[in-house]
Amino acid sequence: MVTVHFVGPIKSHVGKPTAAWDFDTPMRVEELIDRLTGLYGQAFAKEVYAKSGEGFAYQILINGRNIFVLDGYRSEITDGDHVLISITMMGG
Amino acid sequence: MTPEAAGSVLFVDLSEESWSRRPLRADEVKGYVGGRGLNAKFLYDLSESVQDPLSPENPLIFGVGLLTGSAAPSACRYTVTALSPLTGGFGDGNSGGFFGPEMRFAGYAHIIVSGRARRPVYLHIEDDAVAIRDASGLWGKDTWETDGAIKRALGDPEVQISCIGPAGENGVKFSCIINNLTRAIGRCGMGAVMGSKNLKAVAVRGSGSVRIAHPDKAFEILKEMRGMMAEDISFKMFGTYGTPALVDVYNSRGAIPVKNFQKAWIEDARPLSGDLFIEKYSKKTKGCFNCMIHCSHFYELEGSHKEEGLEYESIVSLGPRIGVEDYPTILKGNALCNRYGLDTISAGDAIGFAMEVHEKGLIPEKYLEGENPSFGDGAGALGLLEKITYKKGLGRLLAEGAHGAAGILGGGAGYYAMHVKGQAIISADPRALRGWGLGFAVSSRGADHLRAYPVVEYCFTPEKAEEIWGFREAVDRSAYQGKGKLVKWCEDVRALADSLGLCKFVTRTAYLLPEQLSRLIEPVTGIAFDAKELMRVGERINNTEKMVNVRRGFGRAHDALPERFTREPIPEGPSAGMNIDISQMLDEYYRERGWDVNTGRPSPEKLAELGI
After folding, report:
1. Which of B89, B185, B272, B356 could lock onto B260 through a cystine, CB 3.0 to 4.6 A?
2. Interface residue B455 vs chain A (CB under 8 A)
3. Residue A53 touches chain B, beta carbons under 8 Å
4. Average pLDDT by consecutive 10-residue portion of chain B (612 residues)?
5. Partner A contacted by B234 (CB < 8 A)
């Protein structure tokens, strides 16, 4: 079971902030995005990969670790992992 | 525009009831740009002999950014600077809305107020006409009443007003200055400095404008900027939800402070979510001058209570930090803070501190005066806001801020004061956000996120991090390496945005690079800065602010986070087990700045290199 948490406008594609899927694992982040794009359409992928200025609009974390300091979109997800796909807005 | 044409510097002596003005000098603009930067230079030059931040000698400096009032997107900001009664060192606050542009339209880049009026007064500026007017009838009024009363007295509904409420009059150490009813010069107690001068308000009206130096070139780059903003999802997010959306963002990372930073995660944050705020309370959005984001919201409570401008910081400071998880209490508290002129962050922090130390039995009855501060008691917290403002009962103690109150209480209370240099930490747990933690520790105005605002830690790739700072790990929130370089770079870049008068949301991840800012400044102002020169200006500003603090006795020991963050790992949630030790990051930061690693002070060589 892979649990994915969505924060930001991307949540509207899924319709809820958290969902769990019984995907075959291990799987790569890009495979997860492909699977979710299959469920929610190309707009989902477009948003996940969107840029924001000099960086990315969304940050993806596996169990709290930024995938960019793991193996990027090829980072491995295993059974029981929690994936966060969150808008990178911070501040206050 | 020549540097000299960027505006005048107005000197007002309230003790002598006199004023004078002079044009900006080219060396001032080229060395410090304007706004926050040049304010810092003026404070450094004028405050050497000042002992008490609440004495007449402490200069209170208003400054607009070099681009404020121009066609650049969200170029609306102004900064107010003085020695801080809260930290004892460098202090400033920065606000949007419409006051800054109006000051520029009246022809002024900076207003430096010194002395103390013999009776309450307000400063009325209308282009070249400057008047010090009686404000005896305004003293005691809240900020909304003051704004309305001055507009009626002057017969001008469009006059822009920056004023204090009763908290500033009464010397509350974290009182703020309010413009446009809900926009705050929030941090460092600038309201108390204004109150100590018997200055109730500055009212300004200008009939001028900002001439664009090279309209065709400016149009091209401004069109490019606006196109980028229109397409960017992050800007849409700010435009739709405003900063209340950050409740979910911080909570999802296990970085939202709960009960005075005892925890950093809320299992069910739906009662505080941005979604709920939008659905239930928000009525429409509002923008600052020349802004296309419109992040601010008008909201309505129970059909009668109407307000504007709720921010993430206020939600959390008046919410989970004091154990409250209901919007009605938070919305009422936000409105009270705006009316009284209290910094919502420090107010919530002081109350949360009181709740925890009372739990520990560390507040003697002589300070409590019958009060029973307890986590989750929203009604009690609202009552404390009034008592802080008027320094009544327990409010007299809390009006000093958590750090000041802890010093009075003694007996181990200091452990629970969540501050840096006396300034309350914002609503982000540094144990989970290490770059932010370093930023809080080294900030010249005490714990604050807007000095470094290192969002690039989350949205840059390791490749980009390596290109700029030489460390891929800089974008790993759990790593220490590279954070010193990242924070130094961010501080210098953010100082530029503040000095240009640009909103940090516009320069958050786009138009933050000096190369981009350089392309923007010259067509709009006609004043050329190359990228290297701009980074040097940012560095000069940070070093000047640092030197104000050095002169006030600050050193490495003051660049520290509260002990709780080192000793107590986050107990649960997505960041469970994390704590923070900044020593390695601090060494790297000092080396990157060219400061002495042992003392934290700039070297003579660095100061000479920067011309300070």
Report:
1. B356
2. yes
3. yes
4. 84 98 96 98 98 98 97 95 98 98 98 98 98 98 98 98 98 98 96 98 97 94 89 84 91 95 96 91 92 90 77 97 95 96 98 98 96 98 98 98 98 97 97 94 95 87 87 86 94 96 86 89 95 97 98 98 98 95 97 97 97 96
5. yes
pTM: 0.97
- Please state, in angstroms and rounded to a whole number, the distance separating the CA atoms of residues B12 and B14: 6
DSSP structural state of residue B243 = G
What are the residue boundaries of the structural domains of chain B, listed by start? 3-205, 242-423, 429-610
Query: CATH number for the B3-205 domain, one of 3.60.9.10, 3.40.228.10, 3.10.20.600, 3.55.40.20?
Result: 3.60.9.10
How is residue B321 written in tokens? Answer: 């930090």
Instruction: Specify the fold of B242-423.
Output: 1.10.569
Question: Does residue B466 sit in helix, strand or coil?
Answer: helix
Arch. (CATH architecture) of A2-87? Roll (3.10)
Residues of A in contact with B460 (CB under 8 A): 54-55
Domain ranges of chain A: 2-87
Between chain A and chain B, how many beta carbons pairs sit less than 8 Å apart?
A: 131
Question: Residue B476's pLDDT is what?
Answer: 86
**End-to-end Cα separation, chain A, in angstroms:** 34
Nearest to B449 among A7, A64, A91 (CB): A91
User: Using the beta-carbon criterion (under 8 Å), do A91 and B250 form an inter-chain contact?
Assistant: no
User: Which residue from B134, B196, B191, B133 is spatially nearest to B164, judged by alpha carbons?
Assistant: B191
Of 1.10.599.10, 3.60.15.10, 3.20.20.370, 1.10.3720.10, the CATH number of B429-610 is 1.10.599.10
Could you report the predicted ipTM of this complex, rounded to two decimals?
Answer: 0.92
B460 — contact with chain A (CB < 8 Å)?
yes
User: Residue B469: how many CB atoms within 10 A of its CB?
Assistant: 24
